[in-house]
Write the C-alpha cells for this entry.
Amino acid sequence: MEEIEVPQYFICPISLQIMRDPVTAITGITYDRESIEQWLFNNNNTTCPVSKQLLPRDSDLTPNHTLRRLIQAWCTQNASLGILRIPTPKPPLDTLQVLKLLKHLHHHKTFVQLELLALENHRNKKCLLEAEVPRAMIIFIINCYTINQIQKGLQEALSILQFVKIPKKDWPLLVKDHDQIMDSLTWILCREGMENSVAVKSHALLLLKKIINKGNTCHVLERLKPEFFETMVRILRHGVTQQGMSAALHVLLSASSSTRNRIMMVEAGVVHEVVEIELGAPEKRVTELTLAILFHLCCCANGRAKFLSHEGAIAVVTERILKVSAAVDDRAVFVLAMVAKFSGTKVVLQEMLKVGSMAKLCMVLQADRAKYLKDKAMEILKEHSEVWSDSPCFPRSSFCAYVPY
C-alpha cells in the first residue's frame, strides 16, 4: 500500500494526529481543539505547548476555518487511499441558545440537554456559567423543596452543578442569595423512595461539600440545624456511593470545627457511626477523615463519653497508628491523649493496655515521626505510668529505653 505523506501543518503539535477542529491560540500556534482544551483545562497548564509563552485558560481559541477546509479537501482527494473525510465541527454553543433553553425548564428533556452540554466540553461549561445556569439550577432545587415535591430534572440539576465549575469568589453571594439551599439539600437527603436515590443523594452531598468549602463558610456552618446532622448520620449508616460518602465526611469535618456543631453532632450519633465506618477498614483518605472528625468531637466531654461507649473505639484508633499515614498518626495519638487525660478512669486505662495502646505509643517514640508527636506519646505514657507499670501488658522495656520510672 502506498505510504501517505500528510502535510506537516495538518498535524496537531500535541496529539500528532490530523486536526479535526483546528483552532489558533493567541500565541499564533494552531492546535486541534480537543487537544489544546485538554492541555489547558484538564491538565491545568498555562503555557503554549510549542512557544512556551503564557496562555491563560480563559483566552480565546479562534476556529481556523481555512485550514479545516484545506484538511477536508485533502482528505477527499485521498479518499481512494483510505483517508476518511473529517466532518465539519458543530457550531459552538452560545449564550443565547442557553437562555432559550432556560425558558423551558418545565420540560424534563431541557435538563437532559443542559447536562449533555455540560458534559461535552469545557467551552460549553463556560457558556453555561455565563448564562447563569448554576443559579437557575439552585432555584429549581429550592423550588422542589418549597413545594415538597421531587420533580423530574432534579438529578440533572444536581449533576449540572457538579460539572459547571462556579468560581470560588462567586459561591458566597450565590449561597447568600439563595439561603434555603442547605435546607433544600437536607430535605433531598431525607427523602426515601426517589428514582435513582443513590445517585441523587450522592450529587447532593457533593454539592454540600462545595457550598461549605467555597461558600461563606462561617455563614453556612453557623446555621446548621440538629436535623441536618441527624440526616448525615443516616447517610453514614445506610451508605451512598464512595464519592458521596467521602463528601459527607468532608462536610462533617468542616462542621466539627465549631463548638456549637460538635454538640449537635455528638447528640445525633456521629461518633458511633464514624467508629463503625473505621471498623470496616476503609481506604486511606476515609480513615484520615474519620480520625480527624473523632479528634474534634473528643475535644468535648460528651464526645469522649460517646467514644468510650463504643467497645471498639479505642482498639480501632490504636490499630491505625503507624499503619496508614502521618496525618492519621497525629489525630489518633491526640484522641488517645484526650481520652487518657480527661476520661482516664481505671477501666479506660486498662482497656488501653488491653488493646495495645501503650505498646503503640512506645512504637511512636521509636518511629520516624515529628518531635511534637513523640512528646505527646511520652506525655500519655508518663501521666498514668503508676496505673499500668505493673501490668504484664505494659511494654516496660520499650518505655524504660526512653524514660526510667
